[in-house]
Amino acid sequence: MQKGGGIELRRAVDSILVGHRHRTDLGDIDELAGSIDREGLLQPITITPDGVLVCGARRLAAIKKLGWTTVNVWIRSGISDQLGQLLAEQDENTLHKPLTKLEAAGLYRELKRLMAEDAARRKASTQFSSEHQPGHDGAGKFPEPSTATGDAREQAAAMIPGGVSYKTHEKINYLRDLAADPSQPDHVRAQATADVEQLKRGAAVHPLYARTRADEEEARSAEMRRLGVESIQRAAAAKKGAQPPRTPGSEEDVTVRFPTRAFVQTWGELADWWTHYDAAELAAVLTDEQVDSFLAAAAGTARFADDLRTARAALDSEDTELGQQRHLRVL
Length: 331
Prior knowledge:
The protein has about 325 residues and is α+β, with helices and mostly antiparallel strands. It has 11 helices and 5 strands; from the N terminus they run E-E-H-E-E-H-E-H-H-H-H-H-H-H-H-H. It comes from Microbacterium maritypicum.
């Protein structure tokens, strides 16, 4: 059965290759095996097109304990050759040249994404099992899978040789993303690009990350301050009944302004919207374009929120000053 980025089908259990870094402490398998025996395997394990295990080491151990000879698997396409080779390695003696920091961080990111997808599918499938139906105490109970999405970072890092923590991988990927982000100021991108080059030469990660992160945050703060000043100027001009100056060709010259009632209605309907979604599930199914579109809208919303907050504070300040002036005149 074809689904999105992979194919689900039946496969012989003995044909699934388990690489060296999958041989970790799997904990107590008996409870999981009992659940699978009662409910069946609600979510297939994930393998590469070559039959190498990607996600589901505990599930595979449980069905072997139950004596299964075949099992449903999810064959995940789009896995890089380098990650496929890493997953397939059977012994430390067969390891190739050690991974560079950038290679390790790239594989970590790929593994984290695959594990998050797997955890999201498992969560969706277990929500409707007989063990998790609504009871007398209200709505259905939807617990996280045994290896929850929130653990994907640590699991992915543990599978990358070298013993580097997920925090270090995240810092490296932060610098790489910053260098490639066209929305960043030129000096921030240039610094991040230089950092990546230094990482290739073996430089320590945290000092580069800390410095560039501080630069990026300062640039963002400066932009917020600039927007705040412009907002105050617009508010002051509006207070006096004058039109704020516009730059020819600016976005304000072409943007259609909606009435206030549209703002109130829109945000009234969006109250607490984030409580109705699961970030891990969305991360697993949304396209890059869809995620980028949402993040851009969220960033714009945050900037507008700062503008509105600053403008409101400016109006309150003016009202307070006028009140003090009236009070002095009375005295």
